[in-house]
Amino acid sequence: MFQKFYDLLIAGGAWLTILEGLWATVQISFFALVLGTLLGAEVCAMRRSKHKILKIPASIYIAVLRGSPVLMLLMLFYYVVFAKTDMDALVVAIITFGLNTAAYIAELMRSALDATDKGQVEAMRTLGFSGFAAFRYVTLPQAAEIAKPVYQSTIINLIQWTSVVGYVTITDLTRVINNISARTMQPLFMIIVGMIIYLGLSYLVTGIFALSDRIKKRKAGAKK
Amino acid sequence: MSLIEVKGLCKSFGNLEVLKDVSFTVDEGEVVVIIGGSGCGKSVTLRSIELLEKPDKGQIFINGREITAKGADIDSIRREMGMVYQSFNLFSHMNIEENMILAPTRLLKMPREEAVAKAKDLLKQVGLLDKLHAMPQNLSGGQKQRVAIARCLMMEPKIMLFDEPTSALDPTMVGEVLATMRMLAKKGMTMIIVTHEMNFAKEIGSRIMFLADKGVYEQGTPAEIFDNPRKEKTIAFIKKLKFISMHIESRDFDLMELHGNITTFGERYGLGSKAAYRLQLCAEELIYEMFKCAEDEIDTDLSIEYSESEKCIRLNIDAKGKEYNPFALSEDDEPMGVMIVKRTSQNYSHSYVSGTNKISVEI
What we know:
The complex is a heterodimer. Chain A is mostly helical.
């Protein structure tokens, strides 16, 4: 077992290739998440707007992006929209996954904001706070707390969906695993290794959220 | 000059007109209690003063400044008022201390230490100093409402508005909140209170405003409104507080409504659940018993009143039909229901006057 591990991953320097693939996966996931969160907030604001000019495009955006497979969107962007530009495939992937995640994040933000207590906002307003201050001090922190678990699973979903970027020539973690297993004729072993790495990524995300919860609790405790 | 002046306030929700041309003023130190049936616009009136509802027409002046004016500095006018809600509305992600100091530190730039000292002082006054670091969800309803009142006082408002402050509370916790409000009234705070606690209204109010017909229907001192109402709807409303009356025309009458009314009636007079239960039992048994005397149509009137001086509840049933005295049956024929009534009541009597069986039971 250890021999196999050594032969396949260490001896030929395969672990370095795996690391490179992992790095691509992490890059795409991270930047797509940042883009998706920022864009998602915009879309959410539009979706919640009273004006139809903003509301309808946002609804259509959410419906289309959530309703179509992200791989289709990726192929559309890579082979059609950005085909003539010399844009790096990695950037195309980041844009694609960013746009896709934005639709999900817009919806999760909307449901979290809708779930907050309007009475507390009224209390803020009657104390003399502006609407923005009420949002900043009451609605936002409470909505963030509500959205946290769903946001966490959105991130994990995003990471796993990036495994399709191999279709557009990116050598991400999945692609690397695939290449090595083809070369060494050891698919079972390599796929298990790949799955363990993805699992590790998911646990990392879960761990970060758990840690932030713990820090928050400690802070609240320290005040006492 | 009056502290609050409402001029020609109109408000509709869709096609439903709630307030029509409402005008009134509130002077400094007054405690105005707004009463009225449900949906009469009590809360809307109060919320309009804070501009939580935007009036369709009319002007509202707070301490001389018009809050309804275009371009008015609403946030600054609102700082003159404190509002207490039925649902408390404490900020659920902050502890009590943070709840209380948020407004003064952010809006008045009060130093944190000073704000905390003030919060402690106010919490002490409402008896909750030990809850300074508790989270709102760990407080009882009554405690939450007292904190909500104290939180308003942090901003030193000139006016306090109370929107059914005890309606969401367990009956056992109503007292502590009312006590806090009483303390405020004693200090000369100008207050407008929307409440269903009529005894409290009578006691604390310097003026009672009865809302009906989309506006202020009748207003006056508590004695004028509660003991000597002059206008028709006020009389009916006040009467309903003191009596339960029900007209029964069918065997399938709304028994649940009667039970509900008796429960509320019992709570209002502090009769205790046992007495209320006995009352429900007697009323139900007697109504069914008296169906026996009906000839073809059922025509029964039931009324319940509480005499505070004699400390007894009187239940009267007038049933039209042939003469029938449920209390004069021989022991063998006596139905179960009548036995129950005899056991639970102190006095019972029956008389037959011009085609009506009059039953009176004291409990």
